[in-house]
Structures are given as structure tokens and as C-alpha cells.
Amino acid sequence: MLPLVGAQRIYLADCDDRGESPRTVEGKRSNLGFFIRWCQGQGLDYCHDIDLANLELYRSHIGHLVDRRRKKRLDIATQRNRLSAIKGFLRRLQYLRLIEHNPSEFFESPGIPRRIPRAILTEPEIELILDHVLLYGDRGIRDRAILETLYATGLRRMEVGRLTITDVDFATHVVQVNEGKGRKDRRVPIASRACHWIRRYLTDIRPQWSHEKTGPTLFLSTRGNPLTPGQLSRLGAKYIHRAGVNKPGACHVWRHSAATLMLENGAGLRQIQEMLGHASIATTQIYTHLSLGQLKAVYARTHPAARVDWDNT
């Protein structure tokens, strides 16, 4: 009989051997840990103890859990992630012939609605924020370089945090993204203005903060260490607030805004997909829902029913 804890260890090692990113493996470890602890509380210690009825009970259990930070029930996306981790775990155990039957074969994860981003920064708002950053001295120069990079490239927070000083090619205006989401590499254009601010940061600021233990990471804290994801999020959000722009968001709002503005200015979905590093164009298609202003203008110009202004008749 194979204990659940032992099966988890084998499965995670297998995921690592197959080249899954450390972040993905850690996410699976966490989600499976929740499940295994629940199973142990139910007296289910071995793989053969798990059946479809148990899985349905666990679905009900997590459906009533409350996120301590948000003081709300777990959202559908979190529930789906936890249940999908179990399905992948059991499916792989069967493939490896560690279990005879997969009890999750007919177990369905909840569907997840694709959310439209809550806020998009307009071009004037972006310029206002970027100008405001320079009020903050040396940190402002670094932070201007970071925000310019987020805006110009549409990179994810973790991708910006992992950039090294050799990843930006100032001659060709291209950024090399190594091991982005899904451990995929890609090359992304970067605007000359962003290059200007990165170069200024590299020349005037980074040498002041780096020390003998500082690695090649591009963006550093004042202590010469790589910026943490939390630091980048706080940085991305605080300047929006300080500039008086009343919109929510942090690093990701710059990514969403870049993609939306490109689409409104004529970029194709395929090009935006390539730039953002989306595995599926279905993910990129969310931005077609964001250009409402452009849609209304086209509607007013082309739809026969919109030709008469009934508000003024």
C-alpha cells in the first residue's frame, strides 16, 4: 500500500525531472499538502483509500473555506487550482502504475470565468505617473526605470525581477526573458525611452547600491539585493496612488495597459500574444473586451441604428 505522503514525494520528484518550474512544483506541493492533511483528518492515509466520494467531500470542504486575509470564501480560481492539482497527481500516479485506478477520472473541476482586468491606465495617466516618480531622488530613478520596463515590454512582475544587466540589448532595443511563465524564453522589444532610464539607473544608481555579494540582477534594493515580488508590487501600486490616479492595480496593471493600448493602436492579437508570452491566444483574447471606447466609435460610425441621435430629437 502506497501512503499519500510517499506518493506526493514521488510525484513532485517526477514533476521536477520533467522540467516543470520550481514555482509550479511548489504550487503543486502546497495544494496537495492541503488535500493530504484533510485526508489524514478523515483517516485516509493511503492512495487506495481515495475514491470519488472522498473527492466530492473535499470539494465541498474547500468550497466553505475562508481566506483569512480577504475574510471571504476562497474564490473559484483558487478552488479550481486545488482540485486540479489532485487530478493531475492521481492521473500521473496511474500513468506511473503506482495506482491501478484513477478515482478522479470522472471528477470535474469547477469552471472558471475569465476575468476582465479591473483597471486600465490611459496614456495621459501613465505619463502623469511616470513624471511623478522623479520626485523621489535616487529611488525615483530606479523606479522610473522599472515602471518604464513594465509599460514598454508588458513583462510579468517575476520576469522583471529576474532580469539581469545583460538581458537588455541597448543596441537592438530587445529584452531577453529567460524562463518566463512555464519556463519559456522569449525576446521582447523595448522602447528607447525605457532603455534611456535603464541606462541612467545602471550608470548613476546601481553602482551606489551594489556590493561584493551582489549578483547580476538588474534591479536592486538600496541594500544591493534583488527586489522581492512584494517590493515590486508595492512599488507598482504606490506611484499610481501618489500621482492621484484613482485606479487599483500594481505591476500587472502596467502589463494590461500596454496590451490594451497596443490593441487599440492596431496591433494584432498574435503579436500581443507573442509579446506577453501567453501559451494560448485564448488568454490574449481577453483584451478584445477592453477596448470599449474603440468599439463604440466603430459602432457609431457603422451601425445603421446608431445614425440617428434620439437623445436630441
Describe the structure in brief.
The protein has helices spanning 4-17, 22-41, 52-63, 76-95, 123-133, 137-153, 157-162, 192-209, 229-242, 251-264, 269-276, 281-284, 292-302; strands spanning 66-67, 72-73, 168-169, 174-177, 186-189. It is mainly α and 313 residues long.
Provide the descriptors you would attach to this structure in a database record:
3-stranded antiparallel beta sheet; single chain; 313 residues; two-stranded antiparallel sheet; 13 helices; globular; hpI Integrase, Chain A; 5 strands; DNA polymerase, domain 1; 54% helix; mainly alpha; 2 domains
Commentary on this structure:
- The chain is mainly alpha-helical and 313 residues long.
- It has two domains: 4-95, DNA polymerase, domain 1, CATH 1.10.150; 123-297, Intergrase catalytic core (hpI Integrase, Chain A, Orthogonal Bundle), CATH 1.10.443.10.
- The protein contains 13 helices and five strands.
- It has helices spanning 4-17, 22-41, 52-63, 76-95, 123-133, 137-153, 157-162, 192-209, 229-242, 251-264, 269-276, 281-284, 292-302, and strands spanning 66-67, 72-73, 168-169, 174-177, 186-189.
- A hairpin with a 4-residue loop joins strand 3 and strand 4.
- Helix 2 packs across helix 4, helix 6 (137-153) runs antiparallel to helix 8 and helix 6 crosses helix 10.
- The model has no long low-confidence stretch (mean pLDDT 84).
